[in-house]
Design a protein that fits this description.
Chain A: Part of the ABC transporter FtsEX involved in cellular division. Has ATPase activity. Chain A: Keywords: Amino-acid transport, ATP-binding, Cell membrane, Membrane, Nucleotide-binding, Translocase, Transport. Chain A: Homodimer. Forms a membrane-associated complex with FtsX. Chain A: It holds the Pfam family NIL. Chain A: InterPro entries: AAA+_ATPase, ABC_transporter-like_ATP-bd, ABC_transporter-like_CS, ACT-like_dom_sf, MetN_ABC, MetN_ABC_transporter-like, NIL_domain, P-loop_NTPase. The complex is a heterodimer of chains A (342) and B (219). Chain A is an alpha/beta fold and 342 residues long. In chain A, 37% of the residues lie in helices and 30% in strands. The N and C termini of chain B lie far apart (44 Å). Chain B is elongated. The relative contact order of chain B is 0.16. Chain B is mainly α and 219 residues long. Chain B has a single domain, classed as MetI-like fold (Orthogonal Bundle), CATH 1.10.3720. The chains are: A alpha/beta (342), B mainly alpha (219). Chains A and B meet through helix 2, strand 6 and helix 3 of A and helix 7 and helix 8 of B. Bound molecules: adenosine-5'-triphosphate (ATP) and magnesium ion. The site of adenosine-5'-triphosphate (ATP) has 13 residues of chain A, from strand 2 and helix 1.
Amino acid sequence: MTLIELRGVSKTFPPTRKGGEPVHAVRDVDLSVEAGEIVGIVGYSGAGKSTLVRLVNALEPATSGQLFVDGTDLTTLGERQLQKVRLDIGMIFQQFNLLQSRTVWGNVAYPLEVAGVPKAEHQRRISDLLNFVGLADKAHAWPEELSGGQKQRVGIARALATSPKILLADEATSALDPETTVEVLRLLAKVNTELGITIVVITHEMDVVKTIADRVVVMEQGRIVEQGPVFEIFSAPREQATRRFVATLVDAVPDAVEIEGLRRTHGGRLLTLSFRDESVSQSAVFAEIIGRGVEFELVFGGIEDVRGRSFGHLTLELRGDAAAVDEAVRAVGALVETTEVA
Amino acid sequence: MDRVVELRPEFVEGLIVTLRLAAAGLFVGGAIGLAIGTALYVSRTRGIVPSRPVSVILNVLVNIMRPIPFVLILIVLQPVSRWFGISGISEGHAVVTIVFASAFGIARIVEQNLVAVDPGVLEAARAMGASRWRVVRTVLLPEACGSLILGFTYALVAIVDMTTLAGIIGVHSLGYVALTYGLRQFDWTVTAVAILIIIVIVQIGQFAGNAWARKVLRR
Ligand SMILES: Nc1ncnc2c1ncn2[C@@H]1O[C@H](COP(=O)(O)OP(=O)(O)OP(=O)(O)O)[C@@H](O)[C@H]1O
Ligand SMILES: [Mg+2]
């Protein structure tokens, strides 16, 4: 079932000063998110990621296009009805945005008050939520007494209070250290699997996408330039922007500077092998080389694992009889994608 | 010093009137100032309820009213008070003037403190389904509460100053006591005692305000 669907959605902000240009933050975006999936939205600063998710919970009205959440076109609703819709969409933020005037307990109580949940039910609901995020012992702490990771856990508990169907996470781990990031991501994965909540994560860290997303959407200048299952996009990025993002995660093909460095120490023929199909085992490929009496050495690259499926690029230096090397290159090329390093 | 003892009833009345006027300025003027300041904040271009006309009108009004010296307001507003059936040289008129002046002064203080509230928190509340009015009531004002208390405490000094000046229209504040029995009769002791009482009032207010703000801000 499609839970979120955007059809030709655009958002243009009026010029911020007189005589300035209007800002086309989101341009003609089509996107659907299925119930139960985790979608990662990546893009450089200013690509329009935050604006896109703020359209989904109608914090900003779309300039044009249609935007369906759970079957309802948000662009047809008034403010009162949108407030109801927002109860079904939780949101967490990079800066956590906890209410400083309330304790952890009070923060989680806030959305319950907004939703008009009877006071008598608060106690149980809040305890359950704090247990779920592992902060039961911090119920009466003030926000400034918490670490970043704990603050984000409160943010998550608060976002889940009204049992939403969707959770929007805008750079939710960008202010956290790597270890805490992993913990928070694990919690988000638990939100998805145990509660069945659909999650949209915005990030500029490919690691985050790799760890929890099923699907990735790449944005550039307000447009979606590429999208697909994480493994497909990571192992075979098409667009320039996507390639740059993927390169932050996997040492792909050596660039010009790296080639120069390799050349200095490696006199043999350099060949990059791209593995992405599990049906071809590395050992079968190496057997083709060894079998022809060609020596090789791994000089560059790496293999990444995305949810049990691996892909990556390995650059080999091949040495030996020129004819045998030619033969080996041809045989290997029949098994996997190869690129000759000039 | 005998004279001070002799004038005790005058001092007591002066103290009571001063406190009454200051309370009117702080609470009634404060409430109006809070409303105007909040309206100034929410109507800003990127505010919670942006409104160019409201913003322009309020800003012009506040900018015109604030720089007018209190003594002049006291005189200029006399016809207004009379129109309401209040004598222009009565305590009633002093109340009207002090409420008026403190409301506009406090409005700006309120606006400044609200601007300092993290917009992210307001956005989070909106994302949780809160209406704009609820965001103002349950997030904006509580988040600004500590600094608002400090702002009101700061305003108290100016308000006590106003009560003193109200003495010139014959309102029996401590300022009147100092003016009539101290300055005009060249009795420096009387003047000094009046000043001392005013200092004590301000100190107590300042202390209470600081303590309360510290409790709310937790620092
Ligand atoms: N309220 C606004 N008014 C005017 N322009 C805006 C507004 N919000 C965002 N923009 C502009 O829209 C564009 C997209 O901004 P957005 O915040 O969506 O980018 P982003 O991809 O989230 O970037 P980042 O990674 O830095 O958070 C930017 O050029 C930004 O300046
Ligand atoms: Mg952003």
